[in-house]
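Form P-L/3: holo structure prediction, ligand glutamic acid.
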Amino acid sequence: MQDDTSGREVLRFAPSPNGWLHLGHAYSALFAFDTAKRLGGRMLLRIEDIDIGRCREEYVEGIYEDLAWLGIEWEEPVRRQSEHFAEYETLLRELRGRGLVYPCFATRKEIQDAIAASGIPLHAWPSDPDGAPLYPGIYKGIPRERINALMWEGRSYAWRLDMEKARAEAERINGGPVTFREEGSSAKGAAGLFEIQPELFGDVVIARKDIPTSYHLAVTADDALQGVTLVTRGQDLFPATYIHRILQVLLGLPEPRYRHHGLIRDEAGRRLSKSARDMGLRELRAAGHSPADIRRMVGL
Ligand code: GLU
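OUTPUT (holo model):
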């Protein structure tokens, strides 16, 4: 682990290069950068490009260009997650060795069918904080021989965290419930000590079928490895912190503090999406707006 012995705060902006940056990204990046500056801390940029199917090199270039235009400075070298799959795999192996994850061969269709067969209507089936239906547990606790047979058949599989077991183990290690320190980003933002509720995600996928990691595992690994002390990011990722904290405890990684900020919305009050063209930084720049205009638009 890379230890930052300087005692300075370490902040980061960690975009996924699967689209062009928009005002929401600008707010998040400036929020981290301004906070780092105010605290006399370090500012890192991390490219979260594990989803090799959706990430594109031109978007990575776009990130560098747009952030530099905004006046943001970051340390080199920039960490790119796609170059570190082996490191995430080491952590996954550790979880496997301790029986905290299990292989899941389920296709989306099988999951839908299992929910349908439960007799509970889909709208009444519990979903996780991201809106995905909770995993119905097929392939959980199946005999070793069946797992071997499915692997022999060449069926692809993801690794899921056995949440009940993981939670019990994390509480045992921690000597009690696992919490995190939320600093809140504004007068309105909730600050305080929060107890995690990772069971809201059920047996969450920790490594996907197509890549040996997931957002949750990679972000947890990297924040620790890069010595991030204060994680700033959008409020939409607040519940994801439950998973990151449980992984930190299970893997013996340090605990950063968190500051989840509000989200920039369009005029209709919707969250900005990749298709929010008029909010794209390149479009705004081409239309003659300055970095100072962007700051005004996001209220910074
Ligand atoms: N890469 C994630 C995203 O673009 C953000 C990760 C984080 O800040 O924890 O949504």
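COMMENT: The first strand starts at residue 10 and ends at 13.
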